Q: What sequence folds into this?
């Protein structure tokens, strides 16, 4: 691995280590379905009112307009999500998608509730890329955005929203814009992770590219590693490419539930997504070129081996022919009774072999 690639990997690990702080109230172990339920008013976090239903009732009773609830869930079952759906009036079709997951990125509106699906991705660190290495791990994030609530449903072992919640709470002026600001922050967070993963995958591609085009010193590169990168890029493409249409819908035909002040910021998210998509497409084409170059190198190496084998076979054919002729056991053959016949034949065979070896060497066959 190059020094630059190693420094990039150390920086990624350091950033992830700084983001892990389980003492913050916005986080809980993955074994808990309800990760957090917090009420906000004018960008400020409200005191804990108890469970989910209590928090919602307290906010709607005492805060009036300008307040909202942010409920975070992790892989809830149908029974666990049933009460939440009833509390917020969520559409059954959206509830089914949120519970069972395995959805494409999309944006749907049910009355005054906006339902968005994002594919989350993370880069899987590895010491060495192999033909079976997992490079990209994907998950899903479903977001219900209503007039006074945001419900996030996360699927997968990564993509904790605790750091994002911390960042928003540190900027109350942004959080004061309501659920629309949370939706924008979530979309921006997901797309920024795309860019981070793309940069990390670039290191692996550069490493494979260097090995393919480096002077051959030992075992040739494993083509399975190139295919593995191709498969992982396909997984990354499935997460990023379908998201372009929902973002375009938010920009061109924004729903009424979206705050007009937030709408322009989705253009920036769409620009970042376009950059990530362009890089992924470029990497896809680059990997195809690397694979074709590797196969061409293998073909050239095989041709060189065949030329060497052919050259040596031609050299060996001369003494084989002479020995074959004089081994036919005829009674009357030239020079059989001559004293110098044997050394003369050996000299002729050696000279012919040396001339052939010199000719093949000059032409690059040996």
A:
């Amino acid at each position: 691995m190059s020094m630059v690639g190693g420094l990039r990997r150390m920086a990624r690990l350091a950033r992830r280590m700084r983001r892990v702080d389980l003492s913050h109230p916005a986080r809980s172990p993955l074994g808990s379905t309800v990760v957090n339920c917090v009420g906000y008013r004018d960008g400020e976090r409200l005191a804990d009112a108890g469970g989910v239903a209590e928090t919602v009732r307290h906010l709607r009773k005492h805060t009036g307009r300008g307040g909202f609830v942010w409920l975070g869930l992790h892989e809830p079952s149908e029974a666990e999500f049933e009460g939440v759906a009833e509390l917020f009036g969520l559409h059954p079709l959206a509830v089914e998608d949120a519970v069972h997951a395995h959805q494409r990125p999309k944006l749907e509106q049910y009355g005054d509730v906006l339902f968005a699906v994002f594919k989350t991705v993370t880069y899987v660190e590895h010491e060495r890329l192999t033909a079976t290495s997992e490079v990209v791990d994907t998950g899903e994030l479903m977001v219900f955005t209503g007039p006074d609530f945001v419900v996030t449903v996360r699927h997968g072992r990564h993509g904790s929203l605790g750091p994002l919640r911390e960042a928003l709470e540190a900027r109350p002026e942004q959080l004061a814009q309501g659920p629309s600001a949370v939706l924008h922050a979530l979309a921006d967070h997901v797309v920024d992770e795309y860019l981070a993963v793309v940069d990390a995958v670039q290191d692996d591609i550069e490493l494979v590219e260097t090995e393919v085009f480096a002077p051959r010193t030992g075992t040739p590169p494993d083509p399975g590693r190139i295919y593995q990168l191709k498969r992982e890029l396909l997984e990354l493409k499935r997460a990023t490419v379908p998201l372009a249409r929902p973002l375009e819908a938010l920009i061109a035909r924004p729903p009424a539930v979206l705050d007009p002040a937030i709408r322009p910021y989705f253009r920036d998210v769409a620009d970042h997504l376009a950059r990530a998509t362009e890089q992924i497409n470029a990497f896809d084409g680059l990997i195809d070129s690397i694979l074709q170059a590797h196969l061409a190198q293998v073909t050239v190496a095989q041709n060189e081996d065949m030329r060497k084998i052919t050259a040596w076979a031609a050299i060996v054919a001369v003494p084989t022919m002479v020995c074959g002729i004089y081994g036919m056991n005829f009674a009357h053959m030239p020079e059989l009774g001559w004293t110098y016949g044997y050394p003369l034949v050996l000299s002729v065979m050696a000279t012919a072999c040396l001339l052939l070896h010199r000719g093949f060497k000059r032409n690059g066959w040996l």
Q: What stands out?
A: The CA atoms of residues 33 and 107 lie 24 Å apart. The longest strand covers residues 113-123. The chain is about 55% helix and 15% strand. The radius of gyration is 34 Å.
